[in-house]
Write a structure and sequence with these properties.
The chain is mostly helical. The protein has one domain. It is 81% helix and 0% strand. The protein is built from 3 helices and no strands. It is rod-shaped, with a radius of gyration of 21 Å.
């Protein structure tokens, strides 16, 4: 595994996110984490310190994208829950 290969994996993760294929993301991210851990465990990884920092920065950007999407989904769920509660209130008073 090389920094370029790790960067390519992050590219696949980003494209998968942008496509909205959220079920495919966890295994891709787990695999990438395993590859990063394996790469960093080798002694020669120290020679790639700047590349590793760049990879970490890119990974953090992807994590922020995921968290943003998570916040959006939670807000949609809250809105749906409120809508359901309002519908029940109308049903209780015979308006639905």
């Amino acid at each position: 595994m090389t920094p370029a290969a790790l960067r390519a994996e992050l590219g696949v993760i980003r494209v998968t996110f942008e496509r909205g294929d959220f079920t495919a993301l966890p295994p891709l991210m787990d695999q990438h984490a395993d590859h990063v851990q394996t790469f960093c465990a080798h002694g020669d990884a120290r020679g790639f310190r700047d590349e590793i920092r760049a990879l970490q920065s890119e990974q953090q950007q992807i994590i922020e994208l995921l968290r943003g999407r998570q916040r959006e989904l939670l807000e949609l769920m809250r809105a749906q829950r409120q809508s359901s509660q309002i519908a029940r209130v109308y049903a209780q008073v015979g308006l639905a």
